[in-house]
Amino acid sequence: MSRDRGKFLHQLTTWGGLLLLIGAIFYFVLELWPAWKPELVQFWSSSRDSASLPMIGLAFISLLLGYYFAPTPWRKILEALKVPAIDKGELRRNWYITQMGQYIPGKVWMVLGRITFLKANGVSPVKAVSAFILENIYMMVALASMTIVALPFLSLTSVPLPVIIALWVSVGFGIAMLFAPSIQRKLAHKLSHRLGTDIEDLPHISHRDQAVFIGYHILSWSLRSMALYFWFRGFGVRPSQPFAMVAICLLAAPASWFIALAMVFIPGGIGIREGVQGLLLSGFVPGGVQVATVIALGQRVMLMVVEGFYALQGIIYGALRKRFPARMNHIEQIFHLAGSVFKGALALHGLSRPPQPINVTFSITRRCQSRCKTCYIWDHDTGSDLDLATIENLFRSIGWTYFFNVSGGEPYLRDDLPEIIRLACRFMKPAVVHIPTNAIACERIERLTREIMVVIDEEAPGTVLSVKPSFDGVGELHDEIRGIPGNFEKLLDTLSRLIRVREEYSNLHVGVGTVISRFNADHLEEIIEYSKGLGVDTYINEVAEEREEFFNLGSGITPDGDSYGHIMTIFKHSVMEKMQGMKLLARMTTALRIVYYDLAVRILNEQKQVIPCAAGLLNVHVNSDGSIWPCAVLAYKGEMGRLGDETGFMDIWRSKKAKEIRRSIRRGECACPLANQAYSNILLNPRMFIKTLWIALRGSRGRI
After folding, report:
1. Lesser CB count within 10 Å: N end or C end of the chain?
2. How far apart are CA 128 and CA 116, in angstroms?
3. CA pair distance 403, 425, nearest whole angstrom
4. What is the pTM of this model?
5. How does pLDDT run across 59-94, given as a tens digit for each residue?
6. Which of 552, 520, 514 is nearest to 632 (CA)?
7. Under a CB-based contact definition with an 8 Å cutoff, are residues 610 and 620 in contact?
8. 651-655-657 Cα angle (round to 5)
9. Which residues, other chains included, contact 373 with Cβ-Cβ below 8 Å and sequence gap of 6+?
């Protein structure tokens, strides 16, 4: 088909469809309504007492739920096609907004809107068009399955034989779509050619994924069908066989969609769908087809209100996001976090697949200038740091996360650190980006931090950057532990520079952190007291651990539980003094630390998991060589897989090897006081989470 001819046919169907719809409206108002009015008046006079506002309310709620689940198959198809991860919220909003394109003949706006959105998010044209074709194929299969269930009940209605035959043919075609690859190929080639992309075949989809797509379509359409049933009941229809009417409603929704699909030049299938529904339900309605069709038209108005509500919600949200980017970012993060924690709780008990990790730690390099007594990463640099292209694919695949922890080596040794943060903010949208540093390259740390703050303001306004120089002792003790003469003076210089940058950027938090080992455990009170005069936002500590990641197994650096317990008592009193003036969110973070300190002491003393561990479930560690770990403690011996040209993060995250490692962790075969992991464990443990809330709420009054 030539371009000019295609353009002519497109304009013909567009304007012809609109004119046809306008003509149909005039015909209904001027011809049909006067003829049908006596029957409608008679119906209403006899059924008014049976009308039910609660039933109409149920119809509205059922439609809301039906359209809430409607975008899910689309999202699941994109996941199965391994397209670059797109924020779920943005994906849903685009689906609802483009769904309104069905009221443009040929569904042009809907199709082009979704495909354009995918292309703008890095999806190839072939995959974008394939996703649209697959969505419609599996919708047809789902609707055909619903129709099979309901067709036997047609004997209770007065539907003409040609309509029954047409329905059976539609069902046969819908089921054939699933089992006849040749039909899929022909449909894919035809549709893709019209959309400017030639597809000879569709990608292979596993049976499990197909079942998920079809299942969500059936759920969504069943809720919409029940909305139709409630609507008729709300207008006083009282069938003698209500279950039969439910079955016919299950048939009416998909059947009307099938037929309206054939009449694609009618905007939204208005009139066609309602006529089919009226015909199928006429046997249950006094007054026959005319009354049933008018009631169905009334439900179309409610359906358009629901569709418009979701679309308007997306438009308003987009406008608010532009107007108040930081606040909307925070709101999104809270909802994302709550959803992931809920899914994580289900996954911890084997009731769900693992969600996106809420805590991503990425060791971007092994290079380091320090020569610490507690860590020997610097002595095992392989020079195999991931490049930016691989990092982009990694972040796209991970999608949203709450906490992005940049690790090393020394992160500030990478010249492209600001670009790594840009990619993280663009594709993972973290609420917090955390970067530890040895504070040796003072000027470089200040310069790159400024660049990172500019990147965050551009890509994810409101995201907090936390920079935490290491502070393992006062004066020479720090230099001795870190292995670099003069490191303490550079620490103070780095802090003064970062504090100046903080004056320009309110979302920059500067802190210091102490790794408590046998080298400085006896000096902790001195370290805590000195930290109070540094002018930092936070001071935290954690116990030194023997980890494969640090190549320090057998070093004996970890203090015993009793010593650590004494240390934590001192530190908790210090934290409580600061907690009294904090806002609620800051108190929550501090309360998590306090609960963690108690857990760490118990773990060191008991040498077992004192609460279930969610490593490899809500937390993940990506090593500099592309290996994926559940945590930094298991490290190489817990490797789930390694990123490659054909292996993405989600392939590894949901692999058989990952499942085996999670089962091992769930059985309690390891135990450690790793701080990052402990926070997720606390969120998933009801008793510990309630304790955290109590400390946060009561801590401002000086009590735990």
Report:
1. N
2. 8
3. 11
4. 0.77
5. 999 999 999 999 999 999 988 888 877 878 888 999
6. 552
7. no
8. 135
9. 480, 481, 483, 517, 519, 557
